[in-house]
Amino acid sequence: MGVIVTIDRRMGAGCFMDLGMSLMAFLMAAEARGLGASGIGAMANYGPQIHQALALPGDEMVVCGIALGHPDPQAPENRFRTDRAELPDFTSFRGF
Ligand SMILES: Cc1cc2nc3c(=O)[nH]c(=O)nc-3n(C[C@H](O)[C@H](O)[C@H](O)COP(=O)(O)O)c2cc1C
């Protein structure tokens, strides 16, 4: 199924942190129940079309989509593994 995540346009920048944490909790809860879930930020590029299809109120901003379902671990796209940057490549620790 497809989930569309929106936020009230009047919310301040700090609310995007709350939304991000909610998204993370959603994705982890899905995983804990044996489901697969994948965020799709690119859905935000289709805000007008999504508004029209779902009759969303104008004050709701489309932030992202989430694909949710029963994963097929054997599918090539689910077997593909990307490299991960090392911790020091994107973090600096000061004062230690
Ligand atoms: C909120 C959110 C939005 C995302 N949007 C996109 C997206 O638009 N396009 C994309 O390729 N990956 C997007 N991702 C990443 C994928 O959902 C997924 O995590 C990633 O493709 C997994 O591959 P990786 O293990 O190689 O990182 C998004 C992830 C999150 C959490």
Q: What does this molecule look like?
A:
With 96 residues, the protein is of the alpha+beta class. It has a domain at 12-60. 38% of the residues lie in helices and 23% in strands. The chain contains four helices and three strands, in the order E-H-E-H-E-H-H. It has helices at 13-32, 47-54, 76-79, 87-90, and strands at 2-8, 36-40, 60-69. It has a three-stranded antiparallel sheet, sandwiched between helices. The structure holds flavin mononucleotide. Flavin mononucleotide binds next to strand 2.
Give a short overview:
The chain is of the alpha+beta class and 96 residues long. It has helices spanning 13-32, 47-54, 76-79, 87-90, and strands at 2-8, 36-40, 60-69. The structure holds flavin mononucleotide.
Beta-strand percentage range: 15-25%
**Gross morphology:** globular
Major sheet: arrangement of strands: 1-3-2
Low-confidence stretches: none
Radius of gyration: 17 Å
Mean pLDDT, rounded to whole units?
96
User: What percentage of residues falls in helices of 4 or more residues?
Assistant: 25-40%
Question: Can you count the helices?
Answer: 4
Strand count, sense and barrel status of the largest sheet are: 3 strands, antiparallel
Please tag this protein with its features:
alpha+beta, 96 residues
Question: Could you outline the blueprint of secondary structure elements for this entry?
Answer:
Layout (H helix, E strand, L loop, with lengths): L1 E7 L4 H20 L3 E5 L6 H8 L5 E10 L6 H4 L7 H4 L6
Antiparallel strand pairs: 1-3, 2-3
This protein binds flavin mononucleotide.
The site of flavin mononucleotide has 8 residues, from strand 2.
